[in-house]
Structure formats: structure tokens, C-alpha cells
């Protein structure tokens, strides 16, 4: 990475990185291959390992003291990582402080083999630019390019071109009645497609999206009946496509990708060693995956995830979007938000799994304005700081829609520091929820006047900065001065988040493990 910038170099106190916890059983940590995963995560994220004996709740008090921003739950499949384990992860991560909301962004790291788990944690980042849909990806407006197909309609295909245009058409020559082999080929080889008078679509698949009937071991391509299409199936760590007729097609895809099983029943449940989760990590190339561990009927937790992922255009990672959507669910459950189903919210709350390193920077490649812009102003005080957070709508809320399941969500802003003793002074939102790490704005709901483009909402509050056990990154003192120089290295913001774009703010450049440089833009 090379950039030329005008820099103001200055003296600054040590910068604090995010806090990263690795939770693992004593039995698993005693196995050399699984211990290597935990040790690699510890070194990569400068984290801390928490070892439990019988349950992840054994280390709850230690986690409460450590106050992590991220938690990786490392576990062997089936014996440790299973349906109840997922539910425990949801519930434990809401118990690190006194409020009912989640306190850390989390993910489960497992694999058909320990080598699979080690492979997925080696990735630092992924720009999501190319989508492949086994279902209609209505969010292609927010993704640079890709191809979607339809599970309920034969031969229908939708192209999203890099210039922002789309083509949605019935085209049997390009989208056969049985899409099985077509999708397998795209996963194995990427997309390199042309349509007359349109830009070429080229790229490895960065995110694969599916919906429709499924189980722990298969995805049925057609919906509602199987019709004239085949299945994706898994066994012994191997993912394959079984066409309606003809031989099986093996999926051996090496490029990193997200598997977004947005509307599939049971596909996220690690029930045995033949399950789909393990096959997606073993031969499917997935580095992160979300999926239901039960039969899905409501769908809030995954159909709503794009509101915090696609719509925010690179501001959040996949894991952060998953986390934020769960906080929105909790808010809607507590406040009985119009348009939501209380039974559905309770059903979804703990029944969706997130697999992968939660701190991996898997972001949507930005191609347009996000749903809302945000601004955070902090005025330091002697005992308490004053925070002023403002959001500005870039689209009409009703344009993006809200069904109670999909569409927009409540705007949420991550706080740059952990806080406590919060006192709201004023706001022009309906209400706000402020926890130690985020601020949620209640600005619009179904049936209300839309939150229109250009409209703003703000909250002003005071709080104390939370005293937590964090690891300092010791940085050299740089003398004052203005100069023009080239930057080479990885760029992080002052909260330890790796970034690719410099904007106004304070950053540090990591040239290697020992050499850091502070810059202010």
C-alpha cells in the first residue's frame, strides 16, 4: 500500500487496540492442532485465551472483567459446536454487563478438520464485490456486480453489471431449468460472463446467497417442490451438486467467500460430520457463514442482516452486521415495534449461527452512499465527556421498505470508546438506546411518516469512559512538523480497526510488528 499525503506528525499517548477474547475448552486446547488455532488468533489480534472446563459460562466472570470487543469461540464440531452451543454463545455475550443487549461481536471457529479452522483465520480481509445468488438477491443494488437466479421460477436470471445497470430476464440458454451445474461451475471457476452491449461481469464469488428448503445435509435448489432441479449436498466434508439427472459435480472452491444462507432451514446446525457447515469450510471456500440452526419461518435475523451490511456500504463487517441486527431484534422485542411479530422475534433471537473470525474485515465494496451517514463529536470533560451523535438519511426510509422482517432497521452507531454512567441530555429521535458500545436511534417504523433523505436525528449525552483491562500498543514519539511523505504499510484507526481509505482523523501506520507511525489528516 502506497499513499502520498500531507501529514501532521505529533506526540500522542499510547493507542488502545480492540480487545479480542478466544474461548476454548481445556480438552480442545490440549490438542496440538486446535491449540495452534487459538495461539494464532492470540498473536494475530493481540488477544487473550480463556480456557473453560465444562461450559463457556465457566469463564463468564473473566470475560466480564476483560470486556472484549470480539469473542471467538473455538470448538471441535459436534461434540462441542452444536445447536445448544450456538444458543449459549448468544446468551453469554449479553451478560458481560448489566444491560440486556449484546456486549461483544462474536463468531464460532470450527471446521471439518483443524486445518480448515486454521485456514479461515488466516484471512485478514475480503472486499465483497461479486455476488452469486441461488435465490433472487434483491440487494444487488448495493453490490458492484454478480448474477442471481430464482428458486421459484425456471430459467430466470438477473445480471448486475459493474456500471450499475441490471438485466432481469427469462433466458433458458444462460439459465437452464436445472441450475445445479451452472451454480457449481460459478463457485468453482468464478464468473466471466458477457451480455451483448453490456459490461463484462468478471470475478471470483465473494458472497453466495441461498434460500428455500434445506436441512443440515442439503439445499433443495427449487421451491416449494424440488421440481426439475437438483440439490447441493454434503458428506465427509465434501460439498457437491447433485443435478436432476446426471453425475454429481464436486464443489472444490479455493477462493475466500461468505456463505449467506439467508432463508434456509437447519443449514447452520452442526449435527454431525456430514453437515453442510463443515463442507462449506472444507471444500466450499467459505471463511464466514451465517445460517439457521432450526427450521426458519419468521426470518428477521438473516433477511434483515443486509440493512446493516449491504445498506451501510463498507462501514460494517459481516460479523458486525450480524451483531447489530441482533441488537435491533432485542430492541423491537422490548418495545413491541409496529410491524414486528413478538413470537417471531423470540424464535429468531438465539437460533442463528455465525461462523468465522468475527474480527475479519469482510466488507461490502462501496459503490454508492450508505443508507445513513453518521457523525460523532466527543468533547472531553474533567469527569465526564459530552457526546453528540448525528445521523443523516441518504434515502427515504419507505423507499428501502420495512416488512417487519426485511428492509430497513433502526440506525445504530458504534461508539469509539467504551462508556458507562450515561445521561441523555436531549434528542430529536423518538427515543435512543445507548449502551457501553453503541447508540441506537428509534426514528421510523411501519405506518409512520417516512424518514426522508437529508433529514437528521441527533442525541447529546454525557458519559464516563469505561475503565477496562486493555492492552496498550507502545508507539514511538514523533516530533511535530509538517511534511510530505509516502505511506507504506497497513493503516489502522485509533480504535484498532484496519482500514483502506484515509479520511479526516487520526491513524497509525503499522510497517511491521515493531515499527508504528502516528499520522493526523
The number of distinct helices, counting runs of at least 4 residues, comes to: 11
Tally the beta strands. Answer: 35
Structural class: alpha+beta
The profile of the biggest β sheet is: 8 strands, mixed
Shape, principal axes of CA atoms: globular
**Radius of gyration from the CA trace?**
23 Å
Strands of the biggest beta sheet: in what spatial order?
Answer: 11-10-9-8-14-19-20-21
SS strand fraction? 25-35%
Helix share of residues?
A: 10-25%
Distance between the termini: 17 Å
Instruction: Return residue spans where pLDDT drops below 50 for at least 5 consecutive residues.
Output: 1-16, 469-483
Provide mean pLDDT, rounded. 89
- Assembly category: single chain
How would you describe this structure in keywords?
521 residues; alpha+beta; 8-stranded mixed sheet; 4-stranded parallel sheet; 11 helices; 35 strands; 18% helix
Question: Topology, please?
Answer:
Elements: E1 2-9, E2 15-16, E3 20-25, H1 26-29, H2 32-45, E4 48-52, H3 60-66, E5 70-74, H4 83-92, E6 105-109, H5 114-121, E7 125-128, E8 130-133, E9 145-149, E10 156-160, E11 166-170, H6 180-189, E12 191-193, E13 201-203, E14 207-212, E15 218-220, E16 231-235, E17 238-242, E18 249-251, E19 257-264, H7 276-282, E20 286-292, H8 300-303, H9 318-335, H10 342-348, E21 352-355, E22 361-364, E23 372-379, E24 385-393, H11 397-400, E25 412-414, E26 419-427, E27 431-434, E28 438-442, E29 456-465, E30 472-473, E31 481-488, E32 490-493, E33 498-499, E34 506-510, E35 516-520
Parallel strand pairs: 3-4, 3-5, 5-6, 7-22, 8-9, 8-14, 14-19, 19-20
Antiparallel strand pairs: 1-31, 2-30, 9-10, 10-11, 12-13, 15-16, 16-17, 17-18, 20-21, 23-24, 24-29, 25-28, 26-29, 27-28, 32-33, 32-34, 34-35
Helix pairs in contact: 2-5
Amino acid at each position: 500500500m502506497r499513499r502520498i499525503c500531507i501529514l501532521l506528525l505529533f506526540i500522542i499517548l499510547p493507542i488502545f487496540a480492540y480487545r479480542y477474547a478466544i474461548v476454548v475448552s481445556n480438552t480442545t486446547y490440549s490438542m496440538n492442532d486446535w491449540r495452534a488455532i487459538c495461539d494464532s488468533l492470540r498473536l494475530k489480534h493481540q488477544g487473550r485465551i480463556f480456557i473453560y472446563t465444562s461450559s463457556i459460562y465457566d469463564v463468564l466472570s473473566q470475560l466480564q472483567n476483560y470486556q472484549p470487543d470480539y469473542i471467538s469461540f473455538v470448538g471441535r464440531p459436534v461434540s462441542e459446536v452444536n445447536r445448544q452451543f450456538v444458543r449459549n454463545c448468544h446468551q453469554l455475550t449479553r451478560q458481560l454487563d448489566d444491560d440486556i443487549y449484546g456486549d461483544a461481536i462474536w463468531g464460532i471457529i470450527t471446521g471439518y478438520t483443524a486445518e480448515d479452522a486454521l485456514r479461515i483465520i488466516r484471512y485478514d480481509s475480503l472486499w465483497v464485490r461479486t455476488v452469486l445468488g441461488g435465490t433472487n438477491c434483491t440487494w444487488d443494488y448495493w453490490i458492484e456486480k454478480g448474477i442471481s437466479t430464482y428458486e421459484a421460477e425456471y430459467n430466470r436470471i438477473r445480471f448486475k453489471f459493474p456500471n450499475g445497470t441490471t438485466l432481469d430476464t427469462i433466458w433458458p440458454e444462460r439459465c437452464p431449468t436445472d441450475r445445479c451445474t451452472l451454480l457449481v461451475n460459478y463457485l468453482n471457476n468464478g464468473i466471466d460472463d458477457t451480455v451483448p452491449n453490456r459490461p463484462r461481469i468478471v470475478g471470483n464469488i465473494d458472497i453466495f446467497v441461498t434460500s428455500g428448503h434445506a436441512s443440515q445435509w442439503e439445499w433443495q435448489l427449487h421451491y416449494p417442490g424440488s421440481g426439475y432441479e437438483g440439490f447441493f449436498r454434503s458428506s465427509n466434508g465434501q460439498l457437491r451438486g447433485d443435478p436432476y439427472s446426471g453425475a454429481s459435480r464436486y464443489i472444490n472452491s479455493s477462493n475466500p467467500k461468505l456463505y449467506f444462507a439467508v432463508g434456509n432451514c437447519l443449514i447452520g446446525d452442526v449435527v454431525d460430520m456430514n453437515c453442510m457447515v463443515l463442507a462449506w469450510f472444507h471444500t466450499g471456500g467459505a471463511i464466514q457463514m451465517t445460517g439457521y440452526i432450526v427450521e426458519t419461518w419468521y426470518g428477521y435475523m438473516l433477511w434483515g442482516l443486509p440493512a446493516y451490511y449491504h445498506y451501510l456500504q463498507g462501514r460494517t463487517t459481516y460479523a458486525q452486521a450480524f451483531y447489530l441486527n441482533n441488537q435491533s431484534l432485542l430492541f423491537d422485542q422490548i418495545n413491541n415495534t409496529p410491524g414486528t411479530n413478538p413470537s417471531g422475534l423470540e424464535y429468531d433471537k438465539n437460533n442463528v449461527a455465525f461462523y468465522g473470525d468475527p474480527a475479519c474485515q469482510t466488507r461490502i465494496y462501496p459503490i454508492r452512499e450508505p443508507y445513513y451517514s453518521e457523525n460523532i463529536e466527543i468533547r472531553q470533560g474533567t469527569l465526564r465527556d459530552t457526546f453528540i451523535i448525528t445521523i443523516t438519511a441518504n434515502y427515504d426510509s419507505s423507499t428501502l421498505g420495512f416488512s417487519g422482517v426485511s428492509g430497513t432497521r433502526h440506525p445504530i452507531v458504534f461508539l469509539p470508546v467504551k462508556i458507562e454512567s450515561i445521561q441523555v441530555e436531549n434528542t430529536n429521535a423518538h427515543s435512543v438506546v445507548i449502551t457501553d458500545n453503541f447508540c441506537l436511534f428509534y426514528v421510523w417504523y411501519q405506518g409512520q411518516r417516512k424518514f426522508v433523505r437529508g433529514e437528521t436525528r441527533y442525541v447529546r449525552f454525557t458519559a464516563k469512559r469505561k475503565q477496562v483491562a486493555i492492552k496498550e500498543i507502545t508507539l514511538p514519539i514523533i516530533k511535530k512538523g509538517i511534511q510530505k511523505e509516502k505511506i507504506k504499510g497497513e493503516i489502522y484507526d485509533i480504535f484498532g480497526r484496519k482500514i483502506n481509505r484515509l479520511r479526516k482523523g487520526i491513524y497509525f501506520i503499522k510497517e511491521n510488528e515493531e515499527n508504528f507511525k502516528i499520522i493526523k489528516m
